[in-house]
Write a structure and sequence with these properties.
Number of strands: 9
Mean pLDDT: 86
Largest sheet: 4 strands, parallel
Oligomer: single chain
Length: 94
């Protein structure tokens, strides 16, 4: 479980955006990502690369530069609630 975390990438600037790996990656059963803020991640939340089921992603605010939430390989009911993924006019925050 990841809960009540702020992840900030202050070094992300245009045009030299760094292609960092996923900020959060779920793998397995009953993964929970709750009450999270992500500023300037290249890729924010991955619940698709690895097998997972019954995941819960809730109350997430992010401004990803490439991908907000990636979902795939979910073999049972997963939930995504109250997730806001908004780029800042297509540019990294200073």
């Amino acid at each position: 479980m990841v809960r009540n975390v702020i992840v900030h990438y202050p070094e992300q600037t245009l045009p030299e955006v760094v292609a960092y790996p996923w900020s959060i990656r779920a793998d397995g059963e009953l993964c929970q990502i709750l009450d999270l803020t992500l500023t300037n991640p290249y890729q924010a939340i991955d619940v698709g690369t690895k097998w997972n089921e019954l995941h819960l992603v809730r109350n997430v605010f992010a401004c990803p530069l490439k991908v907000g939430v990636y979902v795939d390989q979910c073999t049972d009911i997963g939930r995504i609630e109250n997730v806001h993924s908004t780029p800042t006019s297509g540019r990294a925050w200073p």
